[in-house]
Amino acid sequence: MRKVALLLITVVTLSACAAPTELEAFSDGRCTATDSQLIEDHITGQINAMSSDDWEKAYSFAAPGFRESVSLEEFTAVIILQYQMLINNQKVSFGDCEILNSQITQKVSVTSDNQIFDLIYSLSVIDGKLGVEAAVTSVAATKVNT
Predict the structure, then answer these.
(1) What is the reported pTM?
(2) Is the CB of residue 115 less than 8 Å from the CB of residue 96?
(3) N or C: which end of the chain has fewer CB within 10 A?
(4) pLDDT by residue (tens digit) across 127-140?
């Protein structure tokens, strides 16, 4: 019985390795609901790590090419100096998502300090893994307190 269980575990593990991941199935155009959920989870994970001051975890969501050119210390400094809205956010919502040549563009709105900031995230898929390449921001609106 033990050999059968071990064989079953081995077959399931090898099958999972051989099957394409959902990330490898991305295709050009608007993101599907499944694509959007994976992307939103990835970005949310990074933002939550920033909000918790877990800089190593936040950095781990970045694309490999980004991590090769920007150190953890540089990443942390830029976020603290220029992206406080991510650290101190009260709400994050997601807009349009598009894919072109394995490059993903995701619109994100962040509410922080009575302002709404629109960000455009650029992500890539390398070896079946999502990675944040960049995020560009601008103040979109001032939230009215009622």
Answers:
(1) 0.79
(2) no
(3) C
(4) 889 999 999 987 55
